[in-house]
Specification:
Number of helices of chain B: 14
Distance between the termini of chain B: 39 Å
Strand content of chain B: 15-25%
Distance between the termini of chain A: 46 Å
Structural class of chain B: alpha/beta
Order of helices and strands of chain B: EHEHHEHEEEHHHHHEEHEHHHHEE
Number of strands of chain B: 11
CATH class of one domain in chain B: Alpha Beta
Shape of chain B: globular
Radius of gyration of chain A: 18 Å
Largest sheet of chain A: 5 strands, mixed, barrel
Shape of chain A: globular
CATH topology of one domain in chain B: Peroxisomal Thiolase, Chain A, domain 1
Oligomer: heterodimer
Strand order of the largest sheet of chain A: 4-5-6-8-7
Number of helices of chain A: 4
Largest sheet of chain B: 9 strands, mixed
CATH superfamily of one domain in chain B: Thiolase/Chalcone synthase
Strand order of the largest sheet of chain B: 3-2-4-7-1-8-11-10-9
Helix content of chain B: 25-40%
Number of domains of chain A: 2
Structural class of chain A: alpha+beta
């Protein structure tokens, strides 16, 4: 551990990481953090590294491209109401970004027929969708065909 | 995630010497129970546990109150101080905690720490939730109305990471079917086979609940099928009477929401037999917590928590005689059993189809019926499982008593998107 502790003055003007992330999506930029020790990508961005447990990370940007590795359809018990309300076709699945990190994600534009078509071909390529939810823009994905 | 936690031995061993539980019930529709409050339910379970341990409220030094969502379900954020007077513990120290549906398992972990540290000798720990209803506005506690999906569903989002996860892919969607979908692909099982496995599991857990007086759903599926005019129970379970709620889960694999409370008394093992001639020692608790944005989180956290507690105790899954899995997502039961090693990898589904996981099988699980039949009073469910585990270890489970008196019991707690705990209990008599 470094002997350089955070100075009080630094905390008077701290970086707003969550705000930066969501503002980035509005501009079509995907922010993440990179561990200064092991190099793993922390996504979405946090202060420290969850891959190796080191305390320091730094900003990078991601392409948002990656692979859909698995997915499920939702039903009445686990539907995403904000997407249902908008009449969107979607599945929920594991997306591994090209830079390494894997997250649970929403993939738009997949109906039952399309789902049956891509299921035996997994993993398949996906690209980012910067989706305007009204008061914020979020990150979904779509098939990169 | 970093997997380097090595659990240390507690400063002193801790044992369960008293257990208590209300039935799981519907407190807004069933006239027998309508109007009962958090203080009354928790109080009955607490006093039941004290009676079992042979102590009076005056003897108990500290207590924990667990509930999954006291604000929405009971209109309070400090339930510990609001229930203390109900069982004679006014003025004693206490703590409220809330870890979603894992609350009841963490209730035991916390109480063990309190005694193991040497701070207290006699501790009550319990959990209570009233999942069927909510306060009828700003009125006294007995005035409750049914919990509506309009209130519950948006509020459920509050278990997901608010900085990012719930607005990305970490909200609802993956949490129910991710693991069973992964398992189906890993083992080349068709959706039809998965359907068969899950209805068989629900069928056998209901058989246990039918013999468990405290369970909320006790009518066996054979009877339900006959009443609906079906000769074959499996046809009934694949019929519109048991519709799909997610891609894989039918209603029979969904938890049955309930009200209820359960509690236990823990003391140092060295004096446990002064309270009860059948004390149950808590050998250890493994813990892992992952937010819902992490792929395959339930599988990963279950494996990690189990690793910790097996390493601590030196025991293996082969030493376990009985398993409880918090299965408000029905498929979790046999999937977690495999991940822990209680059922062989890739073979668990065969054990389910053959009924071997039933209370009268050779690999018994969820002998109270689990969340899909015993019911799910959210935070209280884990403590209800501990109640049942101790009952089985004492050989007091009546018609649903498993064949071999269990020496070791494993409990896998899960909840709150998602906390996981892995507890091992040992019959110390």
């Amino acid at each position: 551990m470094s002997t350089e502790r955070m100075k009080t003055e630094e905390f008077w003007n701290p970086e707003h990481m969550v705000e930066k992330f969501w503002n980035g999506l509005k501009d079509g930029v995907i922010y993440a953090r990179k561990c200064k020790e092991c190099g793993a990508i922390e996504f979405p961005p946090h202060l420290a590294c969850n891959s190796c447990g080191y305390h320091e990370t730094e900003w990078i940007t991601l392409s948002g491209k990656g692979q859909l590795k698995s997915f499920v359809f939702t039903g009445v018990l686990n539907a995403r109401l904000e997407l249902e309300d908008r009449g969107l076709k979607y599945v929920c699945g594991e997306v591994q970004l090209d830079e390494g990190p894997s997250i649970n994600a929403v993939i738009l534009g997949i109906n039952k027929k399309k789902g049956r078509e891509i299921d035996p071909k997994l993993p398949v390529r996906v690209r980012p969708v910067f989706y305007d939810m009204g008061r914020y823009t979020t990150l979904f994905f779509e098939l990169d065909e | 995630m970093v997997r380097n936690v090595k659990l240390g031995k507690n400063l002193r061993s801790v044992s369960i010497v008293g257990i208590g539980a209300t039935p799981f019930l519907n407190g807004v529709e069933n006239p027998t129970y309508k109007g009962l409050t958090n203080g009354e339910l928790f109080g009955h379970a607490a006093l039941d546990a004290m009676k079992d341990a042979g102590v009076e409220p005056r003897d108990v030094q500290y207590f924990f109150h667990g509930s999954a969502n006291p604000h929405v379900l009971n209109g309070c954020i400090t339930p510990n101080l609001q229930v203390a007077d109900w069982f004679g513990m006014r003025g004693k120290g206490s703590l409220s905690h809330s870890e979603g549906c894992c609350t009841g398992y963490i209730a035991l972990e916390e109480a063990v720490f309190a005694v193991a540290s040497g701070a207290y000798d006699i501790v009550l720990t319990g959990a209570c939730d009233q999942g069927t209803g909510m306060p009828d506005g700003n009125t006294p506690d007995h005035m409750r109305v049914p919990l509506t999906t309009e209130v519950l569903f948006p509020d459920l989002d509050s278990i997901f990471d608010r900085a990012y996860g719930r607005y990305l892919g970490g909200g609802p969607g993956m949490n129910h079917d991710d693991w069973i979908n992964y398992y189906a692909k890993e083992n080349n099982l068709t959706p039809e086979q998965i359907d068969d496995i899950l209805i068989h599991q629900a069928y056998h857990f209901r058989r246990a609940a039918a013999l468990c007086p405290r369970a909320i759903r006790r009518k066996p599926y054979d009877e339900l099928a006959a009443e609906a005019g079906y000769d074959n129970v499996w046809d009934y379970m694949k019929s519109p009477h048991n519709p799909k709620m997610t891609q894989y889960l039918r209603t029979s694999s969904d938890s049955c929401v309930a009200d209820g409370a359960a509690a236990c008394i823990v003391v140092p093992t060295e004096i446990a037999k002064e309270f009860n001639d059948k004390p149950v020692e808590v050998l250890g608790t493994g813990a892992s917590v992952l937010d819902a944005i992490v792929p395959h989180l339930e599988k990963q956290a279950t494996a990690e928590a189990a690793r910790q507690v097996f390493e601590l105790t030196g025991l293996t899954a082969d030493d376990m005689d009985l398993l409880y899995v918090n299965d408000f997502i029905g498929s979790s039961a046999f999937l977690a059993a495999e991940e822990i090693g209680y059922l062989p990898k890739g073979e668990g589904w065969k054990y389910v189809l053959d009924g071997r996981i039933a209370f009268d099988g050779d690999k018994p699980m969820n002998t109270n019926g689990g969340r899909t039949s015993y019911g799910h009073a959210f935070g209280a469910s884990g403590m209800a499982d501990i109640f049942e585990a101790v009952t089985q270890m004492r050989g007091e489970a009546g018609e649903r008593q498993i064949k071999k008196l269990p020496k070791h019991v494993f409990l896998r707690g899960f909840g709150g998107a998602q906390n996981v705990r892995a507890l091992i209990l040992e019959a110390n008599f």
